[in-house]
């Protein structure tokens, strides 16, 4: 022990005591998914506080020379049976009564208790030092090492800090109208029961307006159930903001909705407001389901959930390489489903898994913050089979159908960091996450193999002026085909019409509506809706120098190796309220898109002249007389439309005005019209809905070629730290400087800006500080276009992701993947052979090219 004491004394300077703010990784290996519960436990570096599994700790020791590690092992405690359990099995799970995770009444989360054993291990000989051994060592050694051990064990781990265990969807804010709510003295008194809608006599889903006491029915739900919108219409006519749901009033409170604030709210004066209309809260009993209970019930909708999860059949669990489940970290099923599919694609396997040893050898000192390392760790965890072993006949194995799986906490934290949605524990749209992740792959693959090229393709848009019959061709890069759902093409129209007739009869009789059948839409009809020409009514034609009608046709200029198709099930009603289309689509196993290949300019076809339309002077541009932003008060000779277009973008003013009238910020509307190329309100609206969460959504439009944004000057200094970060991503210092100046020195916005202006940056010859590195007038080649692969347009289906629930913001995702001609369902930790893959109910479909 004297020898060990001497070794500890010699490395005492490398043993640190955690301080507030230090990141302590004591729950998960930085390079694998090993944990203290894994075989061999977890080794925590007592200097950097990084954790390593038994397979990787030697690598860290050899690379850094660190010798002292805290070895943590955990074993699960034997859980006592519940007093109310008979001992014959697990107690029944309580039904959720609260839209929350990890709190009483919410959805259950795993809470397991462990016994921990800790000791110091000295490398390279793996000499072990227990707390008892430390007691016999010199005071300076004992005190320092014990301080470090106690500090490490007391510190919150990074994973614990980042994983929000409690998410309560019921947290409500106090209404701004509650304190001073106006109540009319109209003599109305509401009885304690027997309510009916004053307009349609409906007897359920009734709301009493807290201003005038009107009892009216609530909103109609997406599936036709609910009310007839009479309470909402009353608010639109009167402006009276608050209503209480009758039947939910108890001495503890009630459901109160604010139409103006468009949310469930708290009314601290509710007893007083109810008393005004003769309702005594203390004597009321609950007779209706609350809005939370209704939302939970809708999210557990039997038909869709059971079909997609194949709940009606006993599925055979699977284990082995490529069959690894993933833990749900709290509404992370969207992430689990997407990455399961991505790592079945050879490009992602080759980039991140085949050469994982090289990636780990080149990892920075803190691999938990390195994108390539964490993606490689995730891919290896899914494909290696190390975390997907058959429990066999082990009688102690619990949840035989569910794997232990891997918990992608570090990955989720890294890819979601700084994002307003993906950094939270809320449910997200799987399609939006797929694009977000592809964007991150693009940013981190400026050199070498880029796996996102597997999805990248070119779209050709052909616009024909109907007055001159001249055409315009443009190309853009895309990664996903968004397939519209033409509801008017349903093959069971008669069944749907009969169901609607029965619903109207039930509504008139005040009885609950019957279930509504699912619309059956042919896949061919969706494809036809995608390819049919679109009419542009306000197209500015350079041939006739005025606005006229044009047709736009979209075709594939290239076919990717892997094609992603999104069924546009999530849409907006006439009131812009999101809704999900409940449809069944006969998606084929094989697909031939050859007929949709672009042909380019036709023989004898004339192109529209390259002439810019007149500039649009928007309200944010200061205008003095006819000078615009050029010239001076004595000489207006500098003013011209060509000069003006460098300051004011060419925008369709009617589209901008339409968007502004919907309540969107002016700059956001201008960007929407600019980035959709003046192609109309529908395209601009789609851009708005897809970018509403962007941090610079309402920031001023920065045009390609402009050197600065409003509020900056070409000589304004930029952060050296921000410069270094962008340069490390493969850009030149001049390009990084330009991006920071264009975004007021905000790093996140600068990174987004630089990736949206790649063509402009790659073609720039002279920067603000002089000529770009390596640039010379005679030697520069034209900027290369986007790298795309091309081949035959014939594909076969190999995976699809399905969504259950009424909105992308709630519900659940699972994926089905075809492996060795067998469909496999990945439902978080449950990985099973699929018996009836519900291919007609998918949301995202993944096809791969068929080799000819």
UniProtKB/TrEMBL annotation:
It catalyses: Thiol-dependent hydrolysis of ester, thioester, amide, peptide and isopeptide bonds formed by the C-terminal Gly of ubiquitin (a 76-residue protein attached to proteins as an intracellular targeting signal). Keywords: Hydrolase, Metal-binding, Protease, Repeat, Thiol protease, Ubl conjugation pathway, Zinc, Zinc-finger. This is Ubiquitin carboxyl-terminal hydrolase. Residues 650-691, 717-757 form the UBA domain. The gene is usp5. It is an enzyme of class 3 (hydrolase). Residues 68-98, 490-515, 765-789 are annotated as: Disordered. GO terms for biological process: protein deubiquitination; proteolysis. It comes from Chanos chanos. The active site is at residues 333, 812.
């Amino acid at each position: 022990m004297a020898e060990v004491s001497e070794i500890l004394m010699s490395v005492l300077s490398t043993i640190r005591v955690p301080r507030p703010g230090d990141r302590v990784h004591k729950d998960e290996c930085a390079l694998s998914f090993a944990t203290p519960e894994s075989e061999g436990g977890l080794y925590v570096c007592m200097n950097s506080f990084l954790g390593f599994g038994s397979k990787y700790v030697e690598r860290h020791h050899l690379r850094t020379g660190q010798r002292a590690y805290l070895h943590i092992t955990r074993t699960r405690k034997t859980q006592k049976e519940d007093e109310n359990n008979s001992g014959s099995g697990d107690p029944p799970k309580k039904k959720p009564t609260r839209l929350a995770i990890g709190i009483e009444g919410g959805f259950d989360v795993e809470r397991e208790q462990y016994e921990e054993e800790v000791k110091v291990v000295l490398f390279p000989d793996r000499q072990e030092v227990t707390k008892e051994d430390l007691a016999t060592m010199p005071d300076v050694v004992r005190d320092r090492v014990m301080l470090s051990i106690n500090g490490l064990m007391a510190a919150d781990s990074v994973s614990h800090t980042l994983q929000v265990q409690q998410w309560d969807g019921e947290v409500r804010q106090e209404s701004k109208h509650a304190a001073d709510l106006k109540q009319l003295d109209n003599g109305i008194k509401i009885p304690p029961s027997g309510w009916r809608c004053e307009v349609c006599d409906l007897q359920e889903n009734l709301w009493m307006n807290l201003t005038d006491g009107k009892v009216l029915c609530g909103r109609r739900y997406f599936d036709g159930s609910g009310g007839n919108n009479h309470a909402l219409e009353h608010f639109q006519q009167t402006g009276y903001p608050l209503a209480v749901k009758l039947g939910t009033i108890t001495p503890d409170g009630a459901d109160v909705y604010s139409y103006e604030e468009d949310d469930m709210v708290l009314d601290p004066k509710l007893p007083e407001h109810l008393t005004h209309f003769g309702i005594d809260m203390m004597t009321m009993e609950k007779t209706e389901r609350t809005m939370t209970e209704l939302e939970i019930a809708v999210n557990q909708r039997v038909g869709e959930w059971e079909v997609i999860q194949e709940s009606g059949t006993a599925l055979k669990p699977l284990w082995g390489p490529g069959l690894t489940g993933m833990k749900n970290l709290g509404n992370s099923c969207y992430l689990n489903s997407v990455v399961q599919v991505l790592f079945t694609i050879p490009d992602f396997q080759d980039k991140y898994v085949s050469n994982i040893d090289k990636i780990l050898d080149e990892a920075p000192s803190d691999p938990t913050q390195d994108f390539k390392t964490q993606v490689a760790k995730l891919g290896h965890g899914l494909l290696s089979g190390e975390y997907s072993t058959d429990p066999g006949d082990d009688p102690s194995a619990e949840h035989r159908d569910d794997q232990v799986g891997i918990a992608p906490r570090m990955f989720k934290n890294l890819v979601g960091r700084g994002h307003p949605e993906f950094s939270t524990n809320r449910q997200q749209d799987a399609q939006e996450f797929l694009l977000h992740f592809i964007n991150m792959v693009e940013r981190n693959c400026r050199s070498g193999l880029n796996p996102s090229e597997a999805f990248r393709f070119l779209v050709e848009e052909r616009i024909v002026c109907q007055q001159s019959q001249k055409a315009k061709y443009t190309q853009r890069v895309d990664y996903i085909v968004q397939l519209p759902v033409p509801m008017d093409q349903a093959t069971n129209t008669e069944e749907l019409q009969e169901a609607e007739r029965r619903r109207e009869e039930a509504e008139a009789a005040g009885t609950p509506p019957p279930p509504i059948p699912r619309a059956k839409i042919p896949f061919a009809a969706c494809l036809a809706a995608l390819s049919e020409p679109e009419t542009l009514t306000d197209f500015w034609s350079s041939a006739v120098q005025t606005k006229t009608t044009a047709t736009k046709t979209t075709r594939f200029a290239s076919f990717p190796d892997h094609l992603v198709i999104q069924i546009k099930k999530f849409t907006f009603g006439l009131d812009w309220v999101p809704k999900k289309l409940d449809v069944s689509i006969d998606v084929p196993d094989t697909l031939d898109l050859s007929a949709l290949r672009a042909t380019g300019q036709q023989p004898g076809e004339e192109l529209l002249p390259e002439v810019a339309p007149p500039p649009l002077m928007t309200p944010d541009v200061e205008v003095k007389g006819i000078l615009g932003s050029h010239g001076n008060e004595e000489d207006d000779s500098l003013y011209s439309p060509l000069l003006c277009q460098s300051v004011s973008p060419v925008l369709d003013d009617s589209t901008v005005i339409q968007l502004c009238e919907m309540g969107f910020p002016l700059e956001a509307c201008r960007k929407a019209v600019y980035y959709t190329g003046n192609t109309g309100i529908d395209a601009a609206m789609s851009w708005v809905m897809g970018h509403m969460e962007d941090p610079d959504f309402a920031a001023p439009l920065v045009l390609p070629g402009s050197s600065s944004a409003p509020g900056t000057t070409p000589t304004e200094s930029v952060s050296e730290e921000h410069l270094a970060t962008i340069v490390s991503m493969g850009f030149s210092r001049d390009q990084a400087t330009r991006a920071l100046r264009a975004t007021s020195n905000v790093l996140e916005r600068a990174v987004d800006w630089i990736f949206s202006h790649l063509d402009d940056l790659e073609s720039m010859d002279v920067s603000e500080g002089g000529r770009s590195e390596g640039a010379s007038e005679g030697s520069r080649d034209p900027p290369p276009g986007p790298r795309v692969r091309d081949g035959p347009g014939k594909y076969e289906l190999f995976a699809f992701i399905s969504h259950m629930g009424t909105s992308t913001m709630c519900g659940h995702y699972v994926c089905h993947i075809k492996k060795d001609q067998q469909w496999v369902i990945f439902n978080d930790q449950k990985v099973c052979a699929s018996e009836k893959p519900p291919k007609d109910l998918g949301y995202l479909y993944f096809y791969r090219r068929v080799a000819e």
